[in-house]
């Protein structure tokens, strides 16, 4: 909602995006699109104005239900299958634990949570950056959007 308000107010008021869910952390935090649901349709109203910054803090994940953390993990898995063997291997090895523990590291030497989040964002940026304004709607990141709700 803040992104849309900033887009509309004075035509592009700068704003900072603060994702608070695993899904928004790896997906919406890196894009230019801001949208809100309207009239029963997802993202019906919106614009294409990227934030001037994104504040990424995985501590917000502690406030989520496990099911919601899993939604973000599904987006990470999608990116892993399409573009990143390393991310795929990390999710295969650590995914259930990361989901159950909401990406909390197991001590100072546990690099898995941070690396999974980093690779997820980097992979998403690789895919979005060449087509940030969505001139073409043929994008790998949209894989599953057509059938995802039905599943």
Describe this structure in words.
- The model has no long low-confidence stretch (mean pLDDT 87).
- A hairpin with a 2-residue loop joins strand 2 and strand 3.
- The protein is globular and about 45 Å long.
- Helices cover 42% and strands 12% of the residues.
- The protein has five helices and four strands.
- It is of the alpha+beta class.
- The strands form two sheets. It has a two-stranded parallel sheet with strand order 1-4.
pLDDT under 50 segments (min length 5)? none
Strand order of the largest sheet: 1-4
H and E order: HEHEEEHHH
- What is the CA–CA distance across the termini? 27 Å
Helix content: 40-55%
Chain-wise SSE layout:
Elements: H1 2-8, E1 16-17, H2 22-26, E2 33-38, E3 41-48, E4 53-54, H3 66-83, H4 85-100, H5 112-128
Parallel strand pairs: 1-4
Antiparallel strand pairs: 2-3
Helix pairs in contact: 3-4, 3-5, 4-5
């Amino acid at each position: 909602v803040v992104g849309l308000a900033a887009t509309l107010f004075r035509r592009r008021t700068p704003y900072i995006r603060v994702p608070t869910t695993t899904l928004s952390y790896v997906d919406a935090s890196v894009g230019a699109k801001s949208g809100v649901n309207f009239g029963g349709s997802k993202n019906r109203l919106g614009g294409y104005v990227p934030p001037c910054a994104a504040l990424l803090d995985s501590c917000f994940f502690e406030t989520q239900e496990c099911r919601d953390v899993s939604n973000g993990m599904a987006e990470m898995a999608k990116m892993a299958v399409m573009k990143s063997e390393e991310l795929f291997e990390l999710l295969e090895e650590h995914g259930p634990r990361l989901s159950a523990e909401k990406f909390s590291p197991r001590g100072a030497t546990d690099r898995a949570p941070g690396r999974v989040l980093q690779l997820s964002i980097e992979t998403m940026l690789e895919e979005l950056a060449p087509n940030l304004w969505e001139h073409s709607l043929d994008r790998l990141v949209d894989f599953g959007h057509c059938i995802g709700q039905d599943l």
